[in-house]
C-alpha cells in the first residue's frame, strides 16, 4: 500500500478506535469515573481531532486522495459490497472540522448538562452519533453511507427526546424520525435503481457506468433524501421542533453535522447530477424556496433556539441552491464555515439560557453585553459571520455562492428569493443581538449569570477563532475545481453586501420602533403566517396523521370484517339471492289453469307444426 | 394457591348461569359485556352507568352495522386540548382515572393529532399556505421562462480567427475578420 494511503487508513482506524474506546468501556458493569464525560469522552474527541490533522496536512501538502476497500461484505453475481473508505477532498477536510466542533460542544456540555443524572449516557449518545457521522462522511459506497445515515437518524431521535418525560420532546423526536423516514424512501429508491441498473453501489463505479443513462429517477430519490435529512421545504418542520432537545444536541446535530448529511450526499453524488438539468433546477428552486420561507419564519420567532434553528434551515436552503448551480464545492465550503459559526451561536444561546435560569424567550432577555460580555461578543461575531461580513468565515463561502448565483444562467425568481433571504438573515440576526445583548435587562435581578467557567469560555473561544479565520484558512489551502467567474459588474459583486446592509438598516429601524409603538399590532396576516411557521405544522401534523390513523382503525376493526362477512361473504350471498328467490317465487302464482292451458296449447302447436 | 383457584373455577363453571367459557370471564358473569345499541331509557341509563358518564352526556355511536354497540360518542378533542394546569391523575396523559376513553383515544394522545384551536381559522390557513405554494410555483415557472444571466457573446479570436493556428496555409491570404468597431 502506498505510504499516504496507509497513513490515511491508519489515521481513520485510530480515530475510530479512540472514539469507540469510551463507548466500549460503558458496556462493562463497572461504575464510571465521576468525570468520565470530561476525562474519557471529551478527551477522546480531542485526540481524534488531533489525529485527523495528520491526514489533513498530508492532503494539503500532497493533494493526494485515496480510496481503500477492505473486508468484503457480500458478493453476488451482480452486486458487490465491501467495507470501503473514500479519503477525498471532502471527507479529509470535513472530518477535522466536525471533530473540532464536537470537541468544543462536548466541553461545553460538561457544564451545560452538569446537573443531569444521566450525563454519561448523554455523552455516550453524542459519541455514537459522531461515529455514525464519520462512517457516513468517509463511506465510499451507498450501503456504508446508509448505515451512517440511519445511525445519525436514530441518535437524533434519542437525543431530541432526551427529556422524554416531556410530551413535546417525544412529539419532536417522532417528527424527526418520521420526516427522515420519508427522506429515506428516496434514498432507498435511488439505491435500488442504481443496484438494478448500474449494478454497483460503489461511488467510482456508479459515476463511470451511468454516463449514458437517464439518471432522473435516482437523482429525484437522492434529492428527496436530502429534503428529508436537510430539512428542505416540505419536510422541514422537524428541524425547529428538534430544539426540544438540549442545546449541545442542537449545536452538534441540528446545525453542524447531521443536517448537512443530506447536502453532503448530494455533493458526493454531484457528478451524477452535472448533466441532468431537471435535478439541478429542482435543487435550485427547492433550495431557494426553503431559504426564503424559513428566513421569513425566523423573523417573528421569540425563542432564541428557534431563531437559530430557522437560520440553520435557511443556510441549508442556500447550500441546496449552490448544488443547483452545479457548484458542489462551494456548498461544501459553506458546510465547513457554517459549522463553526452556527455551533458557536448555539453554544452562546445555551450559555445565555442557563445564565437566565432556563429562559429561552428573547423578549425576557436584554442587556447581556454588560453581564455576559464574552458570550455577547461571541454571539455578535457569530451573527456577523452568518450574515457574510467581509473577511469573516461566512464571507468566503457565502459571498462566493451569491457571486456564482448572480453570474450564472439561473431562474430569476430563485435569484430574487435567495437575495431576499440573505437580507432576512441580517434582519433576524440583528433582532437576536438587539433583544439579547442590547438595551436594559428584562429578566429578574437574581439570575445565575456566570460565564467564568473555562468549560464555557474555551469552547466559545475556539469556535470564535474558527468563525473568524476558518473561512480564510480553508480558502487559502484548497484548489477550486471549477473556475469561478471573476469579472462581473460592481453591482453584482457587491450585491450580497448591499442586501445584507439593507437588511441590517431595516432591522435597526424596526428595533428603534419598539420603543415608539407607531402601530399597536403589526399587519396581522403576514405576521400570523410567519409566527405560525406558514401554517405548515398546523395543517400537515393534523390532517395526515388523522386521515391515516382513522383509516387504519376503520380498516382494522370494522372494514375487514364488514367486507368479508357482509359485503362479499355470507350476508352478501344472502342479500343477493333473496331478491332472486322472491322474484322467482312471485312468479309461481299457482295459476294451475293458466299453466295447463299453456301446456295444452304448446302441445297442440308442436303437433300441428310436426304434422305439416 | 393454584389449587384454590382451580376449585373456584370448577365451582363457577358448575354454578354459572351463562354457558361456556364466557361464564368464566368476570365481566360476562355480571352481564357487563357489550350489549346491543340501547333503545329504551333503561338501557341508556345502564350504558351510561357502565361507561361512567352522566345520562345527559351519554350518546351512543349511530348504529349503521359497524359494530360499535353501546359505546359512547365522546367529543373529538385531543389530549393536547385539555387544560395543562389542571391536576390530572395522569398529568402526562391529561386524563383522570376511570375516565371514559374516546374510541380513537390512541389518535388523540399528545404525540399525535391535536385538535386545539388555532389562531387563524382552518380555511384561512389552507388558503394562505396553498396560495403561497401555488404562487411560488407560478413564479418559479415565470423565472424559468425569463432566466437571469449575464450577457455573453460568441468567442472572438485574434489573428484573423487564428487562421495559421487552425492549419491555414501561410501563402493563402486569409479573409479579414474584424472583431471590433471603432
Structure characterization notes:
The complex is a heterodimer of chains A (612) and B (182). Chain A is mainly alpha-helical and 612 residues long. Chain A folds into two domains: 3-27 and 35-516, no CATH class; 539-611. In chain A, 73% of the residues lie in helices and 3% in strands. Chain A has helices spanning 3-25, 36-62, 89-112, 119-138, 142-160, 167-197, 203-209, 216-229, 238-241, 247-256, 260-268, 270-273, 277-299, 304-324, 328-355, 368-371, 373-387, 393-407, 412-437, 454-477, 490-493, 495-513, 524-531, 536-567, 570-587, 592-611; strands at 66-75, 80-87. A two-stranded antiparallel sheet of chain A has the order 1-2. In chain A, a hairpin with a 4-residue loop joins β1 (66-75) and β2. The mean pLDDT of chain A is 93. By secondary structure, chain B is mainly alpha-helical. Chain B is rod-shaped. Chain B starts with a helix and ends in a 20-residue tail after the last helix. Chain A binds chain B through residues 165, 167-168, 170-171, 174, 281, 285, 289, 406-416, 485, 488, 492, 525, 528-529, 531-532, 534-536, 538-539, 541-542, 545-546, 549-550, 553, 557-558, 561-562, 566, and chain B through 65-67, 92, 103-104, 106-107, 110-115, 118-120, 125-126, 128-129, 132, 136, 139-140, 142-144, 146-150. Chain B: Residues 64-84 are annotated as: Disordered. Chain B: One of its GO terms (cellular component) is mitochondrion. Chain B: It comes from Gadus morhua. Chain B: This is NADH:ubiquinone oxidoreductase subunit B8. Chain A: Keywords: Electron transport, Membrane, Mitochondrion, Mitochondrion inner membrane, NAD, Respiratory chain, Translocase, Transmembrane, Transmembrane helix, Transport, Ubiquinone.
Amino acid at each position: 500500500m502506498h505510504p499516504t494511503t496507509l497513513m490515511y487508513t491508519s489515521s481513520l482506524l485510530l480515530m475510530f478506535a479512540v472514539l469507540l474506546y469510551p463507548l466500549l468501556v460503558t458496556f462493562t458493569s463497572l461504575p464510571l469515573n465521576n468525570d468520565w464525560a470530561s476525562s474519557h469522552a471529551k478527551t477522546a474527541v480531542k485526540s481524534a481531532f488531533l489525529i485527523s490533522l495528520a491526514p489533513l496536512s498530508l492532503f494539503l501538502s500532497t493533494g493526494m486522495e485515496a480510496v481503500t476497500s477492505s473486508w468484503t461484505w457480500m458478493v453476488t453475481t451482480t452486486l458487490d459490497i465491501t467495507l470501503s473508505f473514500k479519503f477525498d477532498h471532502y471527507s479529509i477536510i470535513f472530518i477535522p472540522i466536525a471533530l473540532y466542533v464536537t470537541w468544543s460542544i462536548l466541553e461545553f456540555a460538561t457544564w451545560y448538562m452538569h446537573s443531569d443524572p444521566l450525563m454519561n449516557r448523554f455523552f455516550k449518545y453524542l459519541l455514537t452519533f459522531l461515529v455514525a457521522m464519520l462512517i457516513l462522511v468517509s463511506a465510499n459506497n451507498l450501503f456504508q453511507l446508509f448505515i451512517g445515515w440511519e445511525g445519525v437518524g436514530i441518535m437524533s431521535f434519542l437525543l431530541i427526546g432526551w427529556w422524554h418525560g416531556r410530551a413535546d420532546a417525544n412529539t419532536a423526536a417522532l417528527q424527526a424520525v418520521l420526516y427522515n423516514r420519508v427522506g429515506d424512501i428516496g434514498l432507498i429508491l435511488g439505491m435500488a435503481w442504481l443496484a438494478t441498473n448500474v449494478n454497483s453501489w460503489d461511488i467510482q463505479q456508479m459515476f463511470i457506468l451511468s454516463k449514458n443513462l437517464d439518471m432522473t429517477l435516482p437523482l429525484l430519490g437522492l434529492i428527496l433524501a436530502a429534503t428529508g435529512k436537510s430539512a428542505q421545504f416540505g419536510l422541514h418542520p422537524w428541524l425547529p421542533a428538534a430544539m426540544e432537545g438540549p442545546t449541545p444536541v442542537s449545536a452538534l446535530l441540528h446545525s453542524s453535522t447531521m443536517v448537512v448529511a443530506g447536502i453532503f450526499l448530494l455533493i458526493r453524488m454531484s457528478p451524477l447530477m452535472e448533466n441532468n438539468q431537471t435535478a439541478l433546477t429542482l435543487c435550485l428552486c427547492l433550495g431557494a424556496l426553503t431559504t426564503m420561507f424559513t428566513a421569513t419564519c425566523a423573523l417573528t420567532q421569540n425563542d432564541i433556539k428557534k431563531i437559530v434553528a430557522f437560520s440553520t434551515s435557511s443556510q441549508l436552503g442556500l447550500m441546496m441552491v449552490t448544488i443547483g448551480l452545479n457548484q458542489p464545492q462551494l456548498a461544501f465550503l459553506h458546510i465547513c464555515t457554517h459549522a463553526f459559526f452556527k455551533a458557536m451561536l448555539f453554544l452562546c444561546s445555551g450559555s445565555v439560557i442557563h445564565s437566565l435560569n432556563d429562559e429561552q424567550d428573547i423578549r425576557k432577555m436584554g442587556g447581556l453585553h454588560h453581564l455576559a460580555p464574552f458570550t455577547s461578543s461571541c454571539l455578535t461575531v457569530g451573527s456577523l459571520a452568518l450574515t457574510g461580513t467581509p473577511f469573516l468565515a461566512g464571507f468566503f463561502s457565502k459571498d462566493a455562492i451569491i457571486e456564482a448565483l448572480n453570474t450564472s444562467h439561473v431562474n430569476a425568481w430563485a435569484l430574487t428569493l435567495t437575495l431576499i433571504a440573505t437580507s432576512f438573515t441580517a434582519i433576524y440576526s440583528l433582532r437576536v443581538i438587539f433583544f439579547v445583548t442590547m438595551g436594559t435587562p428584562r429578566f429578574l435581578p437574581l439570575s445565575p449569570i456566570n460565564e467564568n467557567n473555562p468549560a464555557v469560555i474555551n469552547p466559545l473561544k475556539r469556535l470564535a477563532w474558527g468563525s473568524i479565520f476558518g473561512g480564510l484558512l480553508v480558502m487559502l489551502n484548497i484548489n477550486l475545481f471549477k473556475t469561478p467567474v471573476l469579472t462581473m459588474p460592481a453591482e453584482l459583486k457587491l450585491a450580497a453586501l448591499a442586501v445584507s446592509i439593507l437588511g441590517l438598516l431595516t432591522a435597526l429601524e424596526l428595533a428603534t420602533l419598539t420603543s415608539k409603538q407607531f402601530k399597536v399590532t403589526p399587519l396581522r396576516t403576514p405576521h400570523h403566517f410567519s409566527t405560525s411557521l406558514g401554517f405548515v405544522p398546523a395543517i400537515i401534523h393534523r390532517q395526515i396523521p388523522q386521515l391515516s390513523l382513522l383509516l387504519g382503525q376503520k380498516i382494522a376493526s370494522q372494514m375487514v370484517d364488514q367486507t368479508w362477512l357482509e359485503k362479499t361473504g355470507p350476508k352478501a350471498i344472502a342479500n343477493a339471492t333473496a331478491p332472486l328467490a322472491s322474484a322467482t317465487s312471485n312468479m309461481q302464482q299457482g295459476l294451475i289453469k293458466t299453466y295447463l292451458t299453456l301446456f295444452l296449447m304448446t302441445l297442440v302447436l308442436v303437433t300441428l307444426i310436426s304434422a305439416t | 394457591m393454584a389449587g384454590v383457584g382451580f376449585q373456584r373455577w370448577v365451582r363457577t363453571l358448575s354454578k354459572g348461569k351463562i354457558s361456556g367459557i364466557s361464564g368464566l370471564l368476570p365481566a360476562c358473569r355480571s352481564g357487563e359485556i357489550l350489549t346491543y345499541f340501547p333503545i329504551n331509557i333503561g338501557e341508556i341509563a345502564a350504558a351510561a352507568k357502565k361507561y361512567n358518564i352522566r345520562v345527559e352526556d351519554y350518546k351512543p355511536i349511530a348504529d349503521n352495522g359497524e359494530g360499535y354497540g353501546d359505546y359512547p360518542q365522546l367529543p373529538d378533542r385531543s389530549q393536547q386540548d385539555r387544560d395543562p394546569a389542571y391536576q390530572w391523575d395522569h398529568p402526562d396523559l391529561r386524563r383522570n382515572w376511570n375516565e371514559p376513553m374516546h374510541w380513537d383515544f390512541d389518535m388523540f394522545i399528545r404525540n399525535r393529532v391535536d385538535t386545539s384551536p388555532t389562531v387563524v381559522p382552518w380555511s384561512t390557513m389552507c388558503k394562505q399556505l396553498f396560495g403561497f405554494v401555488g404562487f411560488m410555483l407560478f413564479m418559479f415557472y415565470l423565472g424559468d421562462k425569463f432566466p437571469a444571466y449575464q450577457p455573453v457573446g460568441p468567442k472572438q479570436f485574434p489573428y484573423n480567427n487564428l487562421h495559421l493556428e487552425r492549419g491555414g496555409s501561410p501563402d493563402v491570404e486569409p479573409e479579414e475578420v474584424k472583431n471590433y468597431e471603432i
